[in-house]
Design brief:
Layout: E1 2-8, H1 12-23, E2 28-32, H2 55-66, E3 72-76, E4 79-84, E5 90-94, E6 100-107, E7 111-114, E8 129-130, H3 133-136, E9 145-148, H4 152-161, E10 167-170, H5 179-187, E11 191-193, E12 197-201, E13 211-214, E14 219-221, E15 224-226, E16 230-233, H6 237-241, E17 245-247, E18 252-254, E19 267-269, H7 280-300
Parallel strand pairs: 1-2, 1-6, 2-3, 6-19, 8-15, 9-10, 9-15, 10-11
Antiparallel strand pairs: 4-5, 5-6, 7-16, 12-13, 13-14, 17-18
Helix pairs in contact: 1-2, 1-7
Bound molecules: flavin-adenine dinucleotide (FAD).
Residues 8-14, 31-38, 40-41, 44-47, 78-79, 108-110, 113, 125-126, 135-136, 234-235, 271-272, 278-281, 283 line the site of flavin-adenine dinucleotide.
């Protein structure tokens, strides 16, 4: 069977796109590998009406509501290959199971965070090692906060994080900042630790933090450490299809126009994989736009 749309990624963006298409009575298939970006966090913050809910529960509820529509099919699995089918549509192969055909695609597979290799960091990701203060800043308000230098954006991040609590910038041995940057950090009351960071340690619970061990042996007390993560696409599908990319602040993003159409006809993209500002609300809104725009293309752009 050839679906009207195949959506790769069934999280905030993909399920939102699918909902618009289902409500337009189109046949939609969602393929999802079940690993949303925020699965490391116990609670998701800031989403309209659902502040503080567990992210996996939010996604499960959205999927349940979507599957109430009879034209929707959901496949748990990993899409590994996407190509034109020679008849104006696409065929997507899965790691296991039959290939899936569709007239249009939505790429909503998100991004993967590439974390620095520092002892004790990875296991605290999403709990006491964080990237977004709007998502996970309030909970640490007024406590000891840190920013790990990963590049020029970290100087900006440190000045922002100071809004939530007393902040230390860990330069991790890098030769920054210059005089103007130092003055800006000083004006925000930010302390600077120049030495290399050896490890993250302690805390009352396995994923909490007591401090950062620096190269001279001291443990600098800290409740949360923020980083600017580098990201990569969660899947090579956009490259396989020949989509163009832009350089985003954290990594590559799939280039789309204002209606979420990529540079390859018939392929839309939405969510973290296709926008510079990334959070669950924006991913969901992006998915809605992609779904509506894709539906209109089915009506008005015969391929
Ligand atoms: C630690 C952490 C905490 C966060 N907390 C918040 C928060 O509190 N509030 C907030 O608004 N935002 C938060 N975010 C950001 C939020 O997670 C993302 O903006 C949001 O998940 C993006 O949604 P998405 O649908 O684009 O991608 P994702 O949610 O990452 O979903 C992509 C889906 O595609 C699937 N997939 C990937 N490749 C394939 C493939 N080849 N085949 C099939 N399926 C595939 C994945 O398994 C996944 O289910 C947080 C992010 C992180 C890292």
């Amino acid at each position: 069977m050839r679906h009207d749309a195949l959506i790769v990624g069934g999280s905030f963006a993909g399920l939102s796109a699918a909902m618009q298409l289902a409500r337009a009575r189109r046949s939609v298939c969602v393929v999802d590998a079940g690993a949303p970006r925020n699965r490391f966090a116990a609670a998701s913050h800031g989403f309209f009406g659902q502040d503080g809910e567990p992210p996996l529960a939010m996604i499960a509820q959205a999927r349940e509501r979507l599957l109430a529509y009879p034209s929707v099919r959901f496949v748990s699995g990993h899409a590994v290959d996407a190509a034109l089918d020679g008849a104006g549509g696409f065929v997507v192969s899965l790691e296991a199971g039959e290939p899936i055909s569709a007239s249009r695609l939505v790429l909503a597979f998100g991004v993967h965070d590439m974390l620095p290799e520092i002892a004790g960091l990875r296991e605290r990701w999403g709990a006491s090692v964080l990237h977004c203060p709007y998502c996970h800043g309030y909970e640490f308000g007024g406590r000891q906060l840190g920013v790990l230098y990963r590049g020029p954006l970290s100087l900006h991040q440190a000045q922002l994080i100071a809004e939530w609590g007393p902040t230390t910038l860990f330069l991790d041995g890098e030769e920054v900042p210059d005089d103007a940057e130092s003055a800006a950090l000083h004006a925000r009351g930010i302390a600077i630790e120049p030495g290399r960071v050896l490890a993250l340690e302690g805390g009352d619970t396995p994923r909490s933090l007591a401090g950062v061990r620096v190269v001279d042996g001291r443990l600098v007390p800290l409740d949360a450490l923020y980083i600017v993560p580098r990201t990569r696409m969660s899947s090579p599908l956009a490259e396989q299809l020949g989509c163009a990319f832009d350089d985003g602040p954290f990594g590559p993003v799939i280039r789309t126009d204002a209606l979420k159409q990529t540079t390859v006809a018939g392929v839309h993209a939405a969510g973290d994989a296709a926008q510079f500002m990334q959070n669950a609300t924006l991913a969901s809104a992006d998915g809605v736009l992609a779904g509506v725009s894709l539906h209109r293309s089915l009506v008005f752009d015969q391929r």
